[in-house]
């Protein structure tokens, strides 16, 4: 195996370990959800036991407005993680994203760590995943088909991660021609393309450019949860202990770089409301979602569903993934009762305002 491939596989494994063992959350920025509150409804006129949490996305009816975000694949141990995520996704009837599939394009021996997801979750939406730098280089039709076929994907997530690549010791910072190549990809692929950040958020201006290039769904993956700059900085420090890349005050700001998740949602919801061309764009809320009240607020601010990665990984590691998701859904149901929303459509209309 050549050195580049070894680094990539080690990197995927070290990402999981770093996220589990180190404090890599934003520290001077939050999601912004705490700034919002719902108006209490003292006469909800609904029966709590009849509240319907089901939602529609990727052409499926799912049982909860929630998905497990893209995380892993591409090394041996990832197969076990992906199988466990998929088993819970199938049991709860919710979508699941896999991690970047670049290694599987390069080396077929890692395909099993992704395809296991479809075996364990035959009836829920599964999202394939590839990074912006790979898209910018141009994907062949054969590569696109391999990505989709490997997991019988219902959508292809293109992750946008310039800050992560910038901080990654071996990062690829060539994003030139990305939008042109993205357009070619959206025209060539047989499933919807979802554009997703990894924790720095998507502005309305960027959303507009992505949709103009053919993207159908935006997952904002905003700031306030996991900071991928911090994850990569941890890995950089391990490799180059004494080399400072940035001045200390700039480093602090860069580690907390990004648009808070709530701010992304409000901006893109406004874009959708003001311009009929963008009205049908799907919106997923992720980045620092930490309970069902965050999901409720995200939906009231314009999202179809919420999603989470880092906390799902921790919950799986602690053997309480299903319990965590169901507790979050109970939080969500509490908010729906107290705002008088009997289904997700009504929650989208619920009265929410800045505190
Ligand atoms: C261990 C791990 C690996 C990840 N790898 C990927 C990836 O390959 N592709 C991707 O789109 N996002 C990846 N992410 C980012 C998440 O999908 C998510 O966008 C980000 O962590 C912010 O959400 P959070 O605050 O809920 O964790 C990864 C996250 C974790 C925790």
Plain-language structure description:
By secondary structure, this protein is an alpha/beta fold. The chain has one domain (3-35, 48-334): Alpha-Beta Barrel (TIM Barrel). Helices cover 47% and strands 13% of the residues. It is built from 16 helices and 12 strands. The strands form 3 sheets. An 8-stranded parallel sheet has the order 4-11-10-9-8-7-6-5. A two-stranded antiparallel ribbon has the order 1-12. β2 and β3 (60-62) form a beta hairpin. The termini are far apart. The model is unreliable at 1-5 (pLDDT under 50). The site of flavin mononucleotide has 26 residues, from α1, β7 and α14.
Short descriptors:
single chain; 355 residues; alpha/beta; TIM Barrel; 8-stranded parallel beta sheet; two-stranded antiparallel sheet; 16 helices; 13% strand; binds flavin mononucleotide
